[in-house]
Records
---
Amino acid sequence: MSEQKIQKLAGVRGMNDVLPTDAKQWLYLEKILHDLTRAYGYEFIKTPIVEATEVFQRGIGVVTDIVEKEMYSFEDRLNGEQLTLRPEGTAAVVRAVIEHNLLYDGPKRLCYMGPMFRHERPQRGRYRQFHQFGVEALGFSGPDIDVEIIVMGQRLWDELGLRGVHLEINSLGQAVERAAHREALVSYFTANAAALDEDSQRRLLTNPLRILDSKNSAMQEVIEKAPRLLDFLGAESLQHFTAVQALLKTHNIPCKINPRLVRGLDYYNLTVFEWVTTELGAQGTIAGGGRYDPLVERMGGKAAPACGWAMGIERVLELMAISGSVPEAESVCDIYILHQGGETLTAAFIAAEQLRSAGIDTILFCAPDGQTASFKSQMKKADASGAAFAVIIGPDELALNEAQIKDLRGQGEQHAVPLTKLLDAIIDSLVSASE
Ligand code: ATP
Ligand code: MG
């Protein structure tokens, strides 16, 4: 009988596995993010990965790249509900905040982290499943909170030692100002319609501001000369923008005003910003955000001002690698325990649990065939684990109720201790090894 070869399965295009070596870098970044949120009093919120499609249609805006062509939307086979894998975090956070009435006792500082899904063309820094960390400050209207979240981002880049990150800011003003600008924009782009691609010609009628956000390089010249929204801002919007810039100056955060910065989502007003770098090729934006005062009401809640930003974790990790901000290689464990199966395995297992209860990271040798292996081959694994000490419990040791402790990093010294004193002896050894 011929053996049929079973085909390997592959992951979905644009969706990546994070393998153990890379996972270390992720954990390091996540720890820094947790510390950062604590330092500023932002609390984590977790929302489901799937939401009703309407959450994003209303939250992001129907005439946006994300909603028009990037969402993974489907009908629930069992009840016909229209659902979507979340493409970003803010709309869902605001949905949850309203649903659970989180603003009842005043403003909230929130943050989130997790996978997002967009059906884009996979390339460096652009994936179909990617991860974001984001902060949202809800219920605060002043420019000070815009600056708080920007300062927070800056502290993060500094702490991660990221190279070449620059802040760009702009103001989108308020709806009436955008309406006046929109008229000027429509007549300008109508006069230059031949220079617009198909998408932008369509947007000329639906959402002309979005044309400024186009990534089509052939259109950059016509976009460059378009009327600037900044020139349409009234006194109040300008005052907010000026205050933000002044506060950034106070905190020594250099920024560039980019009048073309409109952001890819529909809900922003007043301050918008992005952190960009030239180190990552075409996908140079590591994080972006701004104020989105209209959103809470638009999602069905009682009107409340808000602002936030989101960063792409994969892009930040890549920039960390380029900047050389790699965490010190940590060993997998402190102690590696060797045995010869049978009763020695039982004793070794008990010893391992005892060490772990005392907070000592311990790997117990386990043979792939469920039997045992020579001490020589076990010792190779112990060395490779990066452990500081090996603990050996063979039949000879067990007969004496002892274990051998072997120094794996120094001269390889070895000494016997009674099993009942193993924990104390290991603590002593670890303490003197770290001195
Ligand atoms: P871009 O202009 O690169 O498409 P965006 O404006 O669509 O970004 P946002 O919606 O503001 O991005 O998301 C915030 C951050 O999330 C981005 O600055 C980027 O770092 C990251 N990001 C967005 N889309 C992707 C993706 N498809 N793959 C990886 N990271 C992404
Ligand atoms: Mg995008």
---
Amino acid sequence: MKSVTILGSTGSIGKNTVDVIARFPDRFNVKALTGNKNIALLAQQAKELHAEIAVTADKALYGELKELLSGSGIRVEAGAEAVVAAAAEPADATMSSIVGSAGLLPTMAVIGRGGDLLLANKETLVCAGEIVMKAVKDKRISLIPVDSEHSAIFQTLEEKHRSAVDRILLTASGGPFRDKDAAFMENVTPEQAVAHPNWSMGAKISVDSATMMNKGLEIIEACHLFAFPADKIEVVVHPQSVVHSAVAYVDGSVLAHMGNPDMRTPIAYALGWPERIASPTKPLDLTAFSGLTFFHPDESRFPALRTAKAALKKGQTATDVMNAANEVAVGAFLNREIGFTDIVKTVDAVLEASDLSPVRTIDDVVAVDKQARERARAMIDERIKK
Ligand code: NAD
Ligand code: MG
């Protein structure tokens, strides 16, 4: 039996992870589940999977969660520190699928205590990639990427042929506004932005896909995960989302990973690792496609790609600031406080105004994140006043 903890079990990745685990009662048992506001779902999952511990990040919901789980024997905890404490409890594998930099400290707690780290929370690597990857190395942690592109690269990157890698082809669906012009994007609504053509995901990552900041975050994620420089990573827009990424070698071979777009595939890969287990993803029927298309991204319509590449060049402090400002700006857009194109403008303005001296510790990363959030918030308030 493999013991599993899911950080963020009530989210899109979390629910898909629960779905896969529930199909293998003889293979997995659940240590801890953590969520935030949706305690009804958290309690239901904890009962269904016979979890040992259920934690809500929201202290105010402790009583209600305790009530929902009374008589179940499941330990109930609440608060941000309790999420970190649950992450520190031993488990063979931990799905890190909290959204945003809120996932950083729980993920560091997992690295600190050992066991496999199944990483969906890309923001952890964007805000602290160097520190996180050093800790992963020092603690000899197996880090299995869950982001579909990075799972694809993980599966097609032949370690013994690392030096023969010519480039990594990071595919992107292009999001819902792939073919829209700049004028259209000025008036996009949150409903239009979260309606992704191929993937069903949480609101934040859906907006990131629409601005293509998601691909920017993923370039940074790939550089840290696979230790390749940014110039080895090429973004290719591929609207059908069948090729999840590929590795091109110097001899001309390109090893691509294909499958239907369903996160339960990379989740099952990570949960089963180093073995493969079945997932409920619909088998791929190549004959059902009349054509698979690929083209270069348009950075003038999707300036987030430029922003992310420039931040990556400047280093970890810049990517930390970029991530925090993006989280605040996406939240403000979803709240209808700013327009769609204001998201990246806000991120650029916060980066421009920030001191980018190096971060050395996780405490430094958290402090930079906090300051960038405050700065983004103040700029948004200023914009609203105008
Ligand atoms: P989501 O919004 O659906 O779920 C987020 C989860 O985090 C929920 O369980 C929520 O309760 C929890 N959470 C939110 N704020 C929290 C806080 N302050 N403290 C503790 N927990 C908190 O998000 P998602 O789409 O499942 O994405 C999760 C992560 O996985 C993100 O980093 C995203 O980029 C990454 N990812 C998601 C997908 C996808 O298909 N959804 C694909 C690739 C990568
Ligand atoms: Mg992805």
